Amino acid sequence: xxxxxxxxxxxxxxxxxxxxxxxxxxxxxxxxxxxxxxxxxxxxxxxxxxxxxxxxxxxxxxxxxxxxxxxxxxxxxxxxxxxxxxxxxxxxxxxxxxxxxxxxxxxxxxxxxxxxxxxxxxxxxxxxxxxxxxxxxxxxxxxxxxxxxxxxxxxxxxxxxxxxxxxxxxxxxxxxxxxxxxxxxxxxxxxxxxxxxxxxxxxxxxxxxxxxxxxxxxxxxxxxxxxxxxxxxxxxxxxxxxxxxxxxxxxxxxxxxxxxxxxxxxxxxxxxxxxxxxxxxxxxxxxxxxxxxxxxxxxxxxxxxxxxxxxxxxxxxxxxxxxxxxxxxxxxxxxxxxxxxxxxxxxxxxxxxxxxxxxxxxxxxxxxxxxxxxxxxxxxxxxxxxxxxxxxxxxxxxxxxxxxxxxxxxxxxxxxxxxxxxxxxxxxxxxxxxxxxxxxxxxxxxxxxxxxxxxxxxxxxxxxxxxxxxxxxxxxxxxxxxxxxxxxxxxxxxxxxxxxxxxxxxxxxxxxxxxxxxxxxxxxxxxxxxxxxxxxxxxxxxxxxxxxxxxxxxxxxxxxxxxxxxxxxxxxxxxxxxxxxxxxxxxxxxxxxxxxxxxxxxxxxxxxxxxxxxxxxxxxxxxxxxxxxxxxxxxxxxxxxxxxxxxxxxxxxxxxxxxxxxxxxxxxxxxxxxxxxxxxxxxxxxxxxxxxxxxxxxxxxxxxxxxxxxxxxxxxxxxxxxxxxxxxxxxxxxxxxxxxxxxxxxxxxxxxxxxxxxxxxxxxxxxxxxxxxxxxxxxxx
Length: 781
Hints:
Layout: H1 5-16, H2 21-28, H3 32-39, H4 48-58, H5 62-75, H6 116-127, E1 136-140, H7 147-158, E2 166-170, H8 181-191, H9 203-215, E3 220-224, H10 229-232, E4 243-248, E5 259-262, H11 268-279, H12 281-286, H13 288-297, H14 302-313, H15 320-328, H16 333-336, E6 338-339, E7 342-343, H17 344-353, H18 357-366, H19 376-383, H20 387-399, E8 404-405, E9 412-413, H21 416-429, H22 432-454, H23 479-488, H24 490-502, H25 506-522, H26 529-543, H27 546-562, H28 567-584, H29 587-603, H30 607-621, H31 627-646, H32 650-666, H33 673-693, H34 697-713, H35 717-733, H36 737-754, H37 759-777
Parallel strand pairs: 1-4, 1-5, 2-3, 3-4
Antiparallel strand pairs: 6-7, 8-9
């Protein structure tokens, strides 16, 4: 070996790997000049940590790495008394060896699971490290997501890339008094070899000294459990081949130019894998479903899964199913999720205690909200604070990891276990009378807003602004905004409807359900309409109003027919509506009741009876000039034509539907144009279906396309997708197979999502047209 054995080996390894000097220098965190000096023999014995950085950057195996280190060692000057000579140039006064420092990394978890993308992101930061801009990685998220575990695991994995040391400091951000930066700086400087007498007194000077010490070192800093940006900023390197990893329950959004990783919940398979690594595959394989149930009951929160796993590991004879049963007892879940000193409640309590009084109140009261998420307006009503204050509190709660903000809407949600914790705090800190008052306040406001929003869909009102909204300044201003609000808040206003009924506010229940009538046509795929109209029926009975009872029994029959597809229930509701309508002497409601009864009978396979009922219904609405009666007549005629077609009397059905079309085109005085066009679209769907039954496919296509265009423009999938299905069938019969397959694919996908009974028919038609396309592509003979 020549005198330049180390340099020659290094040059051969670099060129063999196809890496330039600039590329290797950047990977290893050293200067290009220093690398050039090594290869040319000017630096024959670089320090061990430099060699380790080069080995990591070159990605060579153990034998080659040892040979490179041996070559470097042979070129180093002899030492006396174990201390090698070191130039004073560039050395920070008061610094010495940092070996044996007291800030070593915590123990890595041998059963660490998942988090592959997050680990990959940190690995890329280390590989592409630029000493001019040392990277800072912030790992944030709600309590229990395993932020520290990820940071520690990553630090151990990346340790070979940082041969000058890895240092971990717990900043104790959740303590009443987090560790001040001045104290942290002193600990870091001591660990880095700065003598105690050389550490300045002022925080700014300590921060500057830290940056100077780190400038020429390749170090990994783990700053765990940060309280806020002000605590972290003084601890960050300015230059040097360093990587800083910060963990915090807060997002630390004020830190500039950082790589931020916001951890999410585990996937179910990852949660089960963590459970498996802790308790062993044999137990999980024996109770596969119980393992999945356990992961779900833990909310896929890593800390909760680990606690459950540790508990099981300490009790090898206990089944997973037993723990699942214990966790299913809703009120005891947080008590059950503890194993020794590990307690899920303790993790939540640390963050809760950091909040101010207003934020605590918002957090507790928000647990009263219904549905998967809630708006700032709901939180404000429940907490009894102004909306702006509620919004500020919600932002603090999200920043503290106690709530999850919606990615696009101004809404928030709880993790399941955090909702349980909030409910516990509510029971401990709030008087029952206060809670009842909060629920009452929110329910009254929400139901008034829901009623006003739904009235925007009332055909008689058209686009007139309804009265009665509790806050006109923030009320929806058109149908689209009303639709968005009603959809987002449906769990909230449905619960408010039930609360109004329980409180005896029956007129408010009936009026709200009546307002919802036209909006229910837009959202016929919602199963909740049966509950809405059943509550209205019960409240009408409590009021002693047989007419209101008949109206809402008819709406209930519609819901059972079109939303739940429960035809026996629809038949019973329609017959009860007919009896109430006769008692109230209301011919219009009697006609509707007979029509809904006919619909249920036909769906039960009793088509002949349904046709008889429809003829009876027509007699109740004939020769009336009232617009509502005229619309009822249109509905009854359309339904009668449908049933005639189902009875294989398509020619008679076509005549009936042509009559309906003529009535629509003539218009109904006093009826809004857009309502009549909806009736016309329904009629043209029926006309298209009649023509399909008669094999007149070209004519059917035109009618179906006209109907589809209307329902699509109105964003009413419960109406548009059956039309789309019929159009696809028509196109298949016209031998336009590619077009038919596209249309049928879209119809099938949406009908499945709507749980529409015709979804199976759509699947059959799609298979049929796919087969026909295949035969056309591969003809035989």
